[in-house]
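Go through this fold for my students:
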Amino acid sequence: MPIIEVKGVKKVFKKPVREPGIFGMFKTLFSFKYTTVAAVKDISFSLEPGEIVGYIGANGAGKSTTIKMMCGILTPTDGVITIDGYKPYNPKERKHVLNKIGVVFGQRTQLWWDLPLIESLVILKEIYDVPKDAYEERFKFLSTVLELDPFLNQPVRTLSLGQRMRADLAASLIHNPQILFLDEPTIGLDVLVKDRMIEAIKEINKKYHTTIVLTTHNMEDITDLCKRVIILDEGSILYDGPIKKIKAKFGDMRHISFLTKERNILLELKEMLPKDCLIEEIEGYIHLSFDLEKMSVNDVLKTIIDTYTIEDIKIEENSLESIVKKIYENKQI
């Protein structure tokens, strides 16, 4: 049975029409004129327990609005959202939902700014009425995977961005929620801290079977964590399914870039390699792009290495970012 169900959900915001100037500002207070903006347009999907799903889209696509509706912060204009059978925006059912979810917003913190981190966690333990044994077990696990010990006794306001994000993740999980919403959790983090966060999220999912919804602009995070992705554009779902499926649909592409002292070799390469291979020169490097189903990496590499003296070479597969870009350009899949 799905733990999250979103059925025919729409969210429309009303914005008052404001005329310019101070007079226009006061006139707006007594005006009934407004425009409507559809942030989310009739979306439907469901998530099974233990899934890690990437919920991605451009700025203004409706990602954060959907997350806020699933958390109960916003109420849908139309449609139904249920979290383990409860409606998060229903005042009578909200308490049940809050015990089942954890939320991390990359731009905000739920910790007490002037208190040491350890005291914030103890307060959250009391708020969620977490039994002592359960709290100690989860605290020990989270301290280990998120490496919290060095700054447990520091006031939250003194933490670096990376430390605060790890602290926020711990705070959202201290009551062992069934569902974790991560809205841009790695924004602004350096590579080392980001990798720690990703590994910690994997460990949390593995140990507690936590359902995770991840929104991010970093396609590497999606590739590292998710098997399924939901792509949103202007409030509508363009794609919902496995990452492997869209990679297969757009071709299992490989990209080889190499540097050689030899010049003006593009025409020669085009004669040696199949016509389906895209060849171009960018900033001194020769770039080759081809579908793995039509030619092998070994054959292409052998042709290059046997013919030219190579100074530098790298091989990349088709990135999720480039695929999403194509989907947005075509507005379909």
The longest strand covers residues 34-47. Residues 251-317 form a domain with the Alpha-Beta Plaits fold (CATH 3.30.70.260). The longest helix spans residues 191-208.
